[in-house]
Design goal:
Strand content: under 5%
Helix content: over 70%
Distance between the termini: 24 Å
Radius of gyration: 14 Å
Order of helices and strands: HH
Number of helices: 2
Shape: elongated
Length: 48
């Protein structure tokens, strides 16, 4: 049971990261800057 919840948490984190990177890519494309993209990703990862 313990391992199961740990795996679920890991999967959820992967989904969040995937979702965030997609959003950051949109932001980066919108701003036209890679530093903006990196800052967005770092900001969200730091929030986790």
């Amino acid at each position: 049971m313990r391992n199961e919840s740990r795996l679920r948490r890991r999967c959820r984190r992967k989904l969040i990261v995937r979702h965030v990177s997609k959003g950051a890519r949109l932001l980066g494309g919108y701003c036209g800057t890679t530093p903006g993209h990196i800052a967005a990703v770092v900001g969200v990862v730091a929030a986790l």
